[in-house]
Amino acid sequence: MDIVFLVARILFALIFIASGFAHFAKRKEMAEYAAAMGAPAPGPGVLISGLVILAGGLMILLGIWGDLGALLLIAFLLPTSLIMHAFWKHEDPQMAQTEQVMFMKNISLVGGALAFFWLFVEYGKDLPLTITGPLF
User: Fold this and answer.
1) In this predicted model, what pLDDT tens digit does every residue of 31-62 receive, in sequence order?
2) 114 domain residue, yes or no
3) Total domain count for the chain?
4) Looking at the domain assignment, is residue 15 inside a domain?
5) What span, in angstroms and rounded, lies between the C-alpha atoms of 66 and 133?
6) Each residue of 98-107: pLDDT tens digit?
């Protein structure tokens, strides 16, 4: 069963690692989109959020202070969901529906990150295939 926990971490972390790299590779386009959505300080925000999700994703993937990694992802997901995917602000039904799907995806990812946080805190030293125990 150890491999199941590793596969779960890989699958969960993949979206954050890929998106973190995209924040750097496409930072201009992402900053423009963030500005259009009303995000404060979109240029630095894209770089900071890219670093946060890349670090959080790698921490969960590798099992290095996975509890902190999960908290970093939650700290990214909650404000991003409210700012970037505020579906209730859109008058166009198709755009509102697309943003609602993205909002709900992020909220679901918060649930996953909370579960990983709990696992790392509760069973950290006994979890298989990790590099460190929990930080907290």
Assistant:
1) 999 999 899 999 999 999 999 999 999 999 99
2) yes
3) 1
4) yes
5) 8
6) 999 999 999 9
Q: Which token pair is 99?
A: 């943003």
Q: Is 136 inside any structural domain?
A: no
Other CB atoms within 10 A of residue 88 CB: 9
Instruction: Dig out the tokens for 7 from the structure.
Output: 């596969």
71 exposed, middle or buried (CB, 10 Å; 0-12, 13-18, 19+)? buried
Are the C-beta atoms of 38 and 83 separated by less than 8 Å?
yes
pLDDT value of residue 104: 98
Domain range enclosing 115:
2-126
27 phi and psi, to 5 degrees? -65, -35
**Token output for 39:** 């995000």
From residue 55, alpha-carbon distances to 4, 10, 12, 19, 73 in Å are 22, 14, 13, 11, 9
Distance, CA of 25 to CA of 93 (rounded, Å): 31
pTM over 0.70: yes
Contact status, residue 45 vs residue 39, Cβ threshold 8 Å: yes
pLDDT at position 1: 81
Whether residue 116 lies inside any domain: the answer is: yes
Fill in the DSSP letter of residue 65: S
